[in-house]
């Protein structure tokens, strides 16, 4: 099949979170199965043109009532099969993408012209296919920045080479919807009656994700449990009604992980490789992690790690807020070391700096580091994810693969991938709690640390059990293929 991924992020080119890992690793898995996969992405300023090849001639894209000119670059996706490489196209436009930041910068977290930037990008996707004379069977759009591609396909573009193209929209995070003033609608070049029939309207605003949810032929999200949760009020972010209505077109497929990148046997960021047969490299990783964060090099103490965007979604309000039971009490009351790597909301970054200066067993690194994220996964005993909601979550799967026990909230993909410890039987692969409160986090961390010191054999057995789990794309890539095969442009559109 010919599959085109429309996305705002893909590793190694542009990443703010798991979306980037997922799009690239899924594309590689599909190409490994013999399918023809291409990716289209904006050429952000941070993506060096040096490694890319420019396609001949500029491309005119109809947006905002005029024609917007852009260049197109192309490169092979690193890690994709040599015999069947995944081509990545980059839409280059100086005014929209020639600046730092993907969606924004700290001073302006959501660029004012984002609705126009991503409207232009989505329209350019169609022009690109015409330019290279390659038309997909499936247009697979990811999250709100690419949602408009499914709308454009349904309203106007489904002709010529696209006559038989079907669209799949995948929700990676329902918390981000792309809601903007209607003033930006003109930029889509769609008639005003389509504003209502496509479902853009949202309390007098324009909601890009909502129009995508109503226009795509099929919908999916990144874990079965989140597919179910999003059809309920609590996690539906006001889209639960639409998702319930479209439930026959909506499925949950668990993300896989790129086992070429996340593998303790081959990880170049670890001081020494390790596997279930020889775990000595994990002890070496723990020592390196302690050294890196300036903690005493004690092999016996329990070590808790976190790598995360510092946003409400990740439970940081409960973990680092000023309530009893939060990180401060945890580190003061328990025999443990705590390391965190993250960036995000300013209050939280400041709080982490403050905790690092007040507590000897707590160390934070503010920023983004691929290398350190691998070291935290490998060197920690436990990995904490107290997420408010988690569509899939990749870090708990990385943790299990690295023999690091996840401590997670029972939600979304975390519930699909982690099994709670049973201290009677010793079964399980991690520790779980239901309520998102400082007290529950405190209690569950306390339980994990207790098990670490008092149920050593069970804990070691859990590590090996987690490492034996298969989180590769093998199964899930086939599920996407089965879904693509069921798709036809006429089916499902509301
Ligand atoms: P989300 O996409 O919601 O942030 P995921 O668990 O799906 O959550 O994916 C997060 C990805 O981003 C993981 O690959 C994680 O290692 C990475 N990540 C998040 N913050 C950082 C950071 N500060 N440094 C390095 N990697 C990070
Ligand atoms: C989103 C979600 C995360 C998921 C990722 C990749 O960023 O927050 O849970 O793993 O997308 O699908």
Q: Could you characterize what this model shows?
A:
51% of the residues are buried. With 494 residues, this protein is α/β, with parallel strands linked by helices. The protein has helices at residues 18-32, 94-97, 114-132, 143-157, 192-197, 208-215, 224-229, 233-236, 240-245, 280-293, 316-320, 327-333, 346-358, 370-379, 395-401, 412-417, 438-454, 456-468, 474-486; strands at residues 2-6, 36-42, 53-54, 59-63, 66-76, 87-92, 138-142, 166-171, 179-181, 201-202, 205-207, 218-221, 250-252, 302-310, 336-344, 362-366, 382-385, 405-409, 431-433. The two termini are 25 Å apart. Helix 3 (114-132) crosses helix 4 and helix 4 crosses helix 6. The protein has 2 domains: 2-256 and 474-486, Rossmann fold, CATH 3.40.50.2000; 280-471, Glycogen Phosphorylase B (Rossmann fold). The strands form 3 sheets. Strands 1, 2, 3, 4, 5, 6, 7, 8, 12 and 13 form a 10-stranded mixed β-sheet that branches. The chain is globular, with a radius of gyration of 23 Å. Bound molecules: adenosine-5'-diphosphate and alpha-D-glucopyranose (GLC).
């Amino acid at each position: 099949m010919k599959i085109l991924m429309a996305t705002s992020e893909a590793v190694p080119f542009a990443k703010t979170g798991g979306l980037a890992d997922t799009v690239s690793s899924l594309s590689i898995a599909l190409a490994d199965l013999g399918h023809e996969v291409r990716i289209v992405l904006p050429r952000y300023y941070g993506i060096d043109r040096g490694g890319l090849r420019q396609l001949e001639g500029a491309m005119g894209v109809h947006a905002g009532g005029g024609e917007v000119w852009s260049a197109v670059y192309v490169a092979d996706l690193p890690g994709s099969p040599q015999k069947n490489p995944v081509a990545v196209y980059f839409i280059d436009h100086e005014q929209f993408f020639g600046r730092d930041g993907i969606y924004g910068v700290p001073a302006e977290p959501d660029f004012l012209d984002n609705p126009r930037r991503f409207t232009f990008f989505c329209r350019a996707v169609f022009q690109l296919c015409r330019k290279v004379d390659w038309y997909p069977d499936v247009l697979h759009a990811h999250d709100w920045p690419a949602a408009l591609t499914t709308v454009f396909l349904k309203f106007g573009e489904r002709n010529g080479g696209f006559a038989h193209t079907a669209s799949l929209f995948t929700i990676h995070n329902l918390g981000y919807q792309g809601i903007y003033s209607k003033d930006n609608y003109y930029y889509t070049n769609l008639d005003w009656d389509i504003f209502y029939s496509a479902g853009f309207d949202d309390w007098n605003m324009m909601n890009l994700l909502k129009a995508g949810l109503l226009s795509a032929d099929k919908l999916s999200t990144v874990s079965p449990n989140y597919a179910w949760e999003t059809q309920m009020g609590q996690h539906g972010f006001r889209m639960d009604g639409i998702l319930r209505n479209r439930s026959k077109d909506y499925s949950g497929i668990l993300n896989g992980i790129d086992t070429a990148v996340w593998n303790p046997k081959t990880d170049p960021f670890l001081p020494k490789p390790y596997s279930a047969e020889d775990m000595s490299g994990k002890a070496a990783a723990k020592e390196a992690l302690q050294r890196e964060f300036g903690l005493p090099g004690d092999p016996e103490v329990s070590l808790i790690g976190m790598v995360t965007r510092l946003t409400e979604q990740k439970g940081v309000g409960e973990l680092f807020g000023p309530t009893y039971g939060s990180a401060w009490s945890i580190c003061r009351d328990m025999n443990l070391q705590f390391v965190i790597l993250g960036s995000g909301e300013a209050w939280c970054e400041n709080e982490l700096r403050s905790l690092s200066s007040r507590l000897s067993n707590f160390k934070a690194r503010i920023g983004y580091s691929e290398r350190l994220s691998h070291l935290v996964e490998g060197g920690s005993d436990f990995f904490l994810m107290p997420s408010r909601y988690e569509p899939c979550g990749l870090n708990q799967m990385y943790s299990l693969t690295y023999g690091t026990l996840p401590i997670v909230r029972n939600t979304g993909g975390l519930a699909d991938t982690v099994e709670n410890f049973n201290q009677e039987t010793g079964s399980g692969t991690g520790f779980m709690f239901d309520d998102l409160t400082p007290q529950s986090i405190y209690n569950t961390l306390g339980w994990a640390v207790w098990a670490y010191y008092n149920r050593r054999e069970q804990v070691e057995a859990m590590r090996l059990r987690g490492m034996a789990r298969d989180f590769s794309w093998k199964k899930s890539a086939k599920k996407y293929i089965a879904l693509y095969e069921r798709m036809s442009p006429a089916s499902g559109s509301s």
